[in-house]
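> @MW can you paste both from yesterday?
MW: sure, first one:
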Amino acid sequence: MVEAMQDAGVVVTGAGGGIGAALARRFAGAGARVVVNDLDGRKAKAVAEEIGGTAVPGDASAIVEEARDALGGTIDVYCANAGVGFSDGDIAGPLDERSWALAWDVNVMAHVRAAHTLLPHWLERGSGRFVTTVSAAGLLTMVGAPSYSVTKHGAYAFAEWLSLTYRHRGLKVHAICPEGVRTDMLAATGTAGEVVLVPTAIEPEDVADALFKGIEEDRFLILPHPETGARYQVRAADPERWLAGMNHLQQKVEEVS
C-alpha cells in the first residue's frame, strides 16, 4: 500500500494540527505529494514545510481547484478531515442557530461540495479515493453535543451514499470513526469529554495508522477504537438497551458537572 501512495496527489483538510496533521505526515511518509489545508494559514504552512508539502489555506469547501493545480492537475486522495464541534448541551436552553448552521456547513456540506468538484474527474478516469473523518459520534452519538452528533451522522450517511453509488466506477471511500483522540477538539469538550472520551483517548497518529490499515484491507469503515463496532451492533440490535446506557452516561455527566 505504501508503494500505491508513492507520488500520489493527496489533499488533507483541517491539517494544521491533530488528526489532519497526522494524516498529512503519514501520507508524506508513504511518498505522496501532500496539500495541507487549514483555515489557519500559519499552521498549514508549518505542517507543509515539515513534510515537504504545499500549503493551501482557506475554507475547505472552496480549495479543491487550487489544491488540484498545486498537485499538477490531479488529486488521487482527498481527506475531508476539517470539522467543528460544539458542547452545546441542552437544547431546552437558548438555541444557538449559528453554531448549528456552522456545524452543518463544515461537517456535512464541505464534504458534499468537495465530492461534487472531485467526482467528474475521478469517474472519467475510473479511480479516486475519498476519506472522511467522521467520528464515532456519527455511528453512535455524543452526550452534550447535539449539533456535532447530528451532523456527524450526516457525514457518515453521505460517505455511505458515495460508496454505494460509485464503488463500481472506481471510487474508494473510507469513513474514519474514532472515539476520543488527544487533540484540541477533545480538550474543548468539557465535562462530557472528560467522562466519556478521555479515559480511552488515543493519539492522532493511531488514527492515521488505522486508516492506512483500512486502506490496505480495502475497508469502508475504519474504527481506531475496535470497541466502537460492538457498541454500534448493540445500538442496531437493541436500541432500548443502548439508549438506556447512553442516558446513564448523561446522568453521570450531570452529576459531575
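MW: second:
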Amino acid sequence: MTATTENRPWRGVLVATALPLKDDLSVNYDKFAEHCAWLVENGCDGVVPNGSLGEYQVLTPEERAKVVETAVAAIGGARVMPGVAAYGSAEARRWAEQARDAGCASVMLLPPNAYRADERSVLAHYEEVAKAGVPVVAYNNPIDTKVDLVPELLAKLYEEGHIHAVKEFSGDVRRAYQLAELAPGIDLLIGADDVLLELAVAGAKGWVAGYPNALPRASVELYRAAVNGDLDTAGKLYRQLHPLLRWDSKVEFVQAIKLSMDIVGRHGGPVRPPRVPLLPGQEAAVREATERAVAAGLA
C-alpha cells in the first residue's frame, strides 16, 4: 500500500488511547469502544491503540487483537493506527498483518527494543514489518527503547520506503528542522504532549497524543491553532494545559492520564502491574491541574 498526499491517515490528532480496565483488571471493551467514538465525536481524527499508553506490553495476544478489532468496529479502520511493537521482527510483522486484515490504514512501530539495536538491525526490522503491506509510522522513543532514530537514520528508512512518518518523542525539537532537510517528504508527528507547540511551529503534520483522552476538545483546539499559526490562541491554551501535558513525558503518564479521565467523568480505571497507583503527592498534583482545567472550561 502506497501513501499519497490524499491518503495520509496519520495526519491530524490521533489519540494514543488509554485502555479502560475493570476492577478485576480485565479489559472493558464496551467502555473502550465508547471511548474511541467519543474522541472522534469531540474532534479527534483517530486513535492509536496498543501503544505504551494502552498498556500493550501486559496484554495477552487475544486481548491485543481484540483491542484493534474493537477500535475498528467503533470508528472505522481508516482512523485506527495500532502500535505493532514486539521483541522480534516476525512478531511485529504479524501484528501489522493483523491490523491490516482488521481494516487499519496504517500502523506505528518502535525500533527493536529487546536490546540496543545497531543501525543495520533497525533497517532490517522496519524492512521486515513493511512487508505486511500497510504504511508504517516509526516511533522514536530513545528514553524507553535505548535506540535513537536520529534524523539521518529516519531519512534512510524513508528513502528505502520502509516508513512514511515518525512519531518523535525524543523531546529534541531541533531535530524537526534537520529531518525536514534530510527527508522533505516524511511527515513529522508530535510524539510528546509537552513539546506540542514547538513541533507544530516546526512543521509537524500530526500529533500522536495522550491528554486528549481526558480533554479532547481543548487539545484539538490547541493543535489546530498551533499548526495554523494562531499563536495567540495556541500560546494561551498551551500555558493552561501544560501542567497536565508534561505528565505525558513522565514515567507515571498512564496513571496520570487515567486519573484525569476519571476526574472529567470518563472511565480511566486502574492499571495493570507492574504499574502501581500514583503516590499521594502525584495524585494531588494531577487532580489539582485537572480540576483547574475543568474550572477554566477546558473539559
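> thanks! The longest strand covers residues 12-16.
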